[in-house]
Design a protein that fits this description.
By secondary structure, this protein is an alpha+beta fold. The protein contains 8 helices and 24 strands. It has a 17-stranded mixed beta sheet that branches. Strands 2-1-22-20 form a 4-stranded antiparallel beta sheet.
């Protein structure tokens, strides 16, 4: 593989620098590798004009200056898959919004060499520039333990299966293979989630639920594929024996339906019914959201609420409540379904909405000290980032916070 960029001093390949950064993050680098990193940063013009005399209380200001230099360097790199993070301030006394690009636009080498650099940077430079006389390995461990949110990992594949006989099975603790057999139907776990094989002799129901910090996927008895986001559930039969195939959900789910004109597929969400007409669609129906949002990617669906109904076309989203259809609008479907592809996408969203997603995915409680900051965010990040890496992005955007255990408080 060709080198991503040549470093005149140390001539390290992209893969080598990524590997060292990852191992540095884990406290596993040698003194020689630490020196390489120091030279690498020096080559990237990340050293201050004269940082030797900086006081500890000046560190935060100095760190932000260094981060700006890092981003400026990264912007110059060519490549694909850019992450753009934009923040808008809402002006209360003026109806117009002042949008301000904050500079998050860099070539994404992978989380180890882009987002991870931002996270590692303050620790790494602090060690290399301010604690040269300290024991390196011990300092690294102490700093890692003291970082807010450091031990809160990103969400993972996991769920609970509730069988019709009352048995409860923790799916993420099982190896691939046969989970159980019910009424002539084998329930299998594979790399893609849960699969039902066989035809049930009578109608029995299963439920799958995900908690905060979990996601899951399954293939229903008719071959329809379902992805569940965090804090979600689906109730479904082991066999679709009636004139309709009906399931019900809470939270958020994405469907790829196997179409059957003689046996329509329907999703019940409270008083809203979504009927497949050959379809891929997403449903967002969290209890803490004001409405149920059904977004169509392919095919068509009929959305009914109260006495009203509407057939969506691809790219449309229906918002409903328990009594009626609120509105139909055109949306960017990639933004809506980013979670299925491992991305957390914000599309001109208020900070409060952003933090709802963060709370669900990282299994944390979010509160606000005083008035909720009136700001909007647009951008995307990988759902693989741990919480501390995400918080570094917020910190750079001047969103102040404090975290204790699993309690994150946003400050005014």
């Amino acid at each position: 593989m060709d080198s991503f960029i040549k470093w005149p001093y140390i001539n390290m390949e992209q893969e080598e620098i990524e590997d060292i950064i990852e191992r540095y993050f884990k406290g596993l680098t040698s003194e020689e590798e630490d020196q390489k990193l120091s030279l690498w940063y020096e080559e990237m013009n990340l050293r201050g004009k004269d940082d030797s005399g900086l006081r500890d209380e000046d560190f935060q200001t100095w760190k932000k200056q260094m981060l700006l230099k890092l981003i400026k360097q990264a912007r110059a790199l060519k490549g694909q898959n850019h992450l753009n993070f934009t923040v808008q301030e809402n002006v209360e006394n003026d109806k117009k919004q002042n949008a301000a690009e904050k500079g998050f636009s860099w070539n994404r080498w992978g989380w180890a060499a882009a987002i991870l650099i931002l996270f590692c940077f303050s620790i790494m430079v602090y060690r290399l520039q301010f604690q040269k006389s300290a024991n390196k390995q011990q300092v690294a461990k102490e700093e890692m333990q003291g970082l807010p949110g450091q031990n809160i990992a990103a969400g993972h594949n996991g769920a609970i299966l509730h069988l019709s006989n009352g048995q409860v099975i923790l799916l993420d603790s099982l190896q691939n293979g046969v989970v159980t057999e019910q009424n002539g139907v084998k329930i299998l776990k594979d790399k893609n989630g849960l699969v039902y094989v066989g035809q049930a002799k009578e109608t029995l129901y299963n439920d799958i639920t995900t908690s905060r910090g979990q996601q899951w996927s399954l293939t229903l008895p008719d071959g329809t594929k379902v992805w569940l986001n965090a804090v979600s559930s689906i109730h479904y039969p082991l066999a679709f024996n009636g004139k309709d195939r009906i399931v019900s959900i809470k939270g958020e789910a994405y469907f790829e339906v196997v179409h059957n004109e003689s046996q329509p597929f329907k999703v019940q969400v409270g008083n809203t019914m979504i009927e497949d007409i050959g379809t891929e669609f997403n449903i967002n129906a969290y209890d803490d959201e004001a409405s149920i949002k059904t977004t169509l990617l392919n095919g068509s669906v009929k959305v009914s609420a109260g006495s009203g109904s509407h057939v969506l076309i691809p790219g449309e989203q229906a918002e409903t409540d328990n009594s009626h259809i609120i509105k139909i609008s055109k949306v960017n479907t990639e933004n809506v379904t980013g979670w299925v592809n491992g991305e957390m996408i914000f599309d001109n969203e208020m900070l409060e909405e952003v933090m709802k997603k963060v709370s669900r995915w990282y299994d944390i409680d979010v509160t606000y000290s005083g008035k909720i900051p009136n700001r909007k965010f647009t951008g995307s990040i990988s759902r693989k980032l741990n919480l501390s890496e995400f918080l570094k992005l917020l910190e750079f955007e001047n969103v102040d916070y404090k975290i204790q255990g699993k309690q994150l408080t946003i400050l005014p």
